[in-house]
Every structure is written in structure tokens, then in C-alpha cells.
Amino acid sequence: MADSSAPETLQFGWEEWISLPDLGVPALRAKVDTGARTSALHAFDIETFGSAAKPKVRFTVHPIPGRDDLVIPCSAPIVDRREVSSSNGEKELRFVIESTMEVAGQSWPIEITLTNRSSMTSRMLLGRQAMKDHISIAATDRFLQPELNYDVYHTKRMREVQPNRALRIAVLSREDNYSTRRLVEEGEKRGHAVEVINTTRCYMTINTLAPEVHYDGKRLPRYDAVIPRIGASITAYGAAVIRQFETIGTYCVNPSAGITASRDKLYAHQIMARAKVGMPNTAFAASPQDTGNLIGLVGTAPLIVKLLESTQGKGVVLAETKKAAESVIDAFRGLKANFLVQDFVKEAAGEDIRCLVIGGKVVASMKRTGAEGDFRSNLHRGGSAKAVRITKTERETALRAAKSFGLGLAGVDLLRAEAGPKVLEVNSSPGMEGIETSTGKNIVGMLYEDIEARVRPTPIRRRKAAK
Fold it and tell me: Any stretches that span the bilayer, and where are they (predicted)?
């Protein structure tokens, strides 16, 4: 009995239309060459990535001859590296990948070598290995199978047919902590290549034609995305590195401008005020003669006096009385430190809520409670956390706060006040351990889902240079 699962025998002419769905190439004209063993695909910007045990290759394809402005990004695992002789006898060492070929509703896996075929009229050559036993060749004919059309590259359907290819992602971090390890672990679990880059060891070539980022004596490769984990002590340099990636055209989860603004507490409060985000009454002044007026603008004691450069609760002081507030302000001024004075929200009772925002959605929230006797709820200072349900108003406030800085990933800290939620801070490098542990959610996985959706490959139409 014949095997009903075996593909139907197809007849090919010397040229046929095919598709490569694994690579997101829905229509390609291929030349049939039974003299060649392995098929070859026109590819450029060929670059390897991933681990030595499971190497991958990324490359781009011009599917339409004469249309170098239309580019499709692709990636695939490397199955071999093989020396191939071209028709003119030249030998070339090529990467070999495996991909599904689809013709007339049938599909099967084929091996493909990657090479520059820009001088060839056909973007792909089909060798013997792709023919298998179910293809017969009519060498004098062409297009014996259903003809496809290049028009598909100009339709909305192109986004739907794109595969979830492996991405190359850089995590800008100087620390080997839970968040960095989780970003690497989860990214690799999803098939991506994730590299941790020490921000301070990056240096840049700044020019008009070819801006670059270098690291340890080498130019960094093209990344699909950068996840910034910039420490407060290197905000300025970290932002400069991110700006360079932005100049190159790399997608950065958090933009340099948003990181810089969120770290400057005075500027951050001005941004949130402009976006009508609820926050505690806040005042700032430079002159010692304005201390009394400064306190009066905020309200009555107790008050919070906060250094502009404070992080993780450091440099934040609770002044129980007006006199205590004046003493703290005088001390900070004596140190030539910049600070804010804020109203103390008594009803919060040493608790705040951290809302984790990813891609314009609140994906998780936790209530943080300060250690006994401490008005600060930071987990780094001995506080505890548990999952909490937030109200619609709290959700909208957190989203508006993150959006005002343009952040794709943000930890928005807010207080539950009688007058409604009050945002304390928007953190552009929120820790993942506390929120994942307290909620039981795979927050890092949600971040990667957002990255994949934003950098999923679609045809790129490059602008042609003006003549």
C-alpha cells in the first residue's frame, strides 16, 4: 500500500515560484539546478551569534531582483559550514541552514547555503537535495507550479507571515544580580542570544556615516534590542551609550531621554506635573533665605526632605517637626546638596505600591511595607512585599506616569492617599526579584513578549539616496 503521507509528485520547470515560511519569505523565484547539491539563497549582512554549542546566523534577504530597498531580516540555527564551488569554479566557505520550502500547498525541509547572489538574476538556486524523490524536472519549461506574486511584500499580511525569529539582545548592566541573570536565562529559554555588556566598558565612534559602539577592542554587532540596566552612579555615561544605540537604529526598551529624566527627581516631578500625574506637594529652592517659604509651600510638618540623587531610600529623611525640617534643610545646604521638600502622606502608613509597567500595560503590582519603625518601604532596606490588587485609578495613574517618560519598562511607586494615588517615583531600572517573587508572575517573560512584538521582522523599505 502506498504511503498516504508521502508528498505528491510535482513537476518543476527550470524556474519556479517557492516560499520559505520559516524565514518569512512568502514569494521567491528560484532557478532549478540539478548540477548543484545544495540550494543557495541570496543573503547579505551575514553574522553569527549565540553560543558555541548552538550557533545561529542572522542575515538579510532582497527577495525582489533590482529592489535593494526591500529588505527582510532572517535568522536560523547553523547546521553546517561547507565549502561550495560556484559555477565559475571559485570556492567559498558558506553557512548551511535548514528551512521549510513550500510549493503548491506542499512543504518539506531543505538545506540552504547563504551567499551573495547579487550578480545573479535568480535570488535562489534549488539543488538536488531540495528535489528529493518527489520532483520531476522538465528542463525546457518554467513555472509549472502555481505562480506567486511579489505584491505580497506590499500588504499588511506580511506581518502575519513573519516567523518569531531568534533575536540578538544586549543587556547593559554592570551587576551580576537577580535581574540580570533572569534576563539572560529567560531570553535564552525563548531561543534568543542575550549578551551582558558592561556599560562603562563601551566606547563610541561618533560620526555621520557610520556611528558605532565598541567594546573590549571590537565593534559591537548589530543588536535587535537593548535592555538598559543603568545604575544611578553612571546615569550620564549610560545615557550616552544608549543614545549611540538609538543613533544606530537599535530598539532600546527605555530611551536615553526617559532614563535621564526619571533619575533627576526635580525634572521628573516637573514632567509628571505637566502630565497631570498625582503626586505629593513638592517644593524646591536654592537660597537659604527661602527655607520658611519652602516649608510653607508644601504644608505642615511632618515633611519629607529628599536628595535629588537619592536611590533605594538613601538620602530620604522624615522631619517630624518644622524645626527638624529646618535643621535637615540647613544640613543638606551645608553639603551643597540639591534636595526636594515634600508633603508626608500620613495615611499611607509606611506602605507604597509598586506598579510594574511593560509596553503601556500594568502587568503586576505589589504592596511594599517598610521595616518596623521605618517610614521607607524599600525592599533593599528590609521592607516586605506581597501581591496587591490595584484600582482603576491607580492603574491609570501608573500608566500615565510611565508614558510621560516614554519608558517601555518602568516601576511606578505610588502612595494610597485620601485624595487619590500619589506617585513618588518612576524607576527606569526596576528590580525583578521582589515583583516576581511576590506575584508569582514571569515578569521577564512578559518583557520579552513585548520586545518580540516590537522588533518582529517585517520588510524594511530603505530610502533610496537622492541623485
Answer: none
Enter the CATH code of domain 168-261. Answer: 3.40.50.20
List, by residue range, all CATH 2.40.70.10 domains of the chain. Answer: 10-161
Pairing of strands 225-228, 168-172: parallel
pLDDT digits (tens, 9 = 90+) for 152-208: 887 766 666 666 778 889 999 999 999 999 999 999 999 888 999 999 999 988 877
**Calpha distance 353→203 (Å, rounded):** 38
Q: Percent of the chain scored above 90 by pLDDT?
A: 45
From the CB of residue 226, how many other CB atoms can be counted at a distance below 10 Å?
Answer: 23
Residue ranges, comma separated, of all CATH 3.40.50.20 domains in the chain are 168-261
Question: What pLDDT shows up at residue 167?
Answer: 87
How many Å separate Cα 340 from the centre of its chain?
A: 33
The fold of 10-161 is Cathepsin D, subunit A; domain 1 (2.40.70)
The residue among 41, 426, 408 whose CA lies nearest residue 225 is 408
Name which of 237, 255, 263, 423 is nearest 338 in CA terms. Answer: 263
Strand, helix or coil at 177? Answer: coil
Structural contact between residues 390 and 355, judged by C-beta atoms closer than 8 angstroms: yes
The secondary structure of residue 9, as a DSSP letter, is: P
Task: Name the residue among 118, 142, 154 with its Cα closest to residue 27.
Answer: 154
> Residue 299: left (phi > 0), alpha (psi -120 to 50), or beta?
left
- What's the predicted TM-score (pTM) here? 0.74
In the chain, CATH 3.30.1490.20 sits at 281-344
Write down the CATH superfamily of domain 281-344: ATP-grasp fold, A domain (3.30.1490.20)
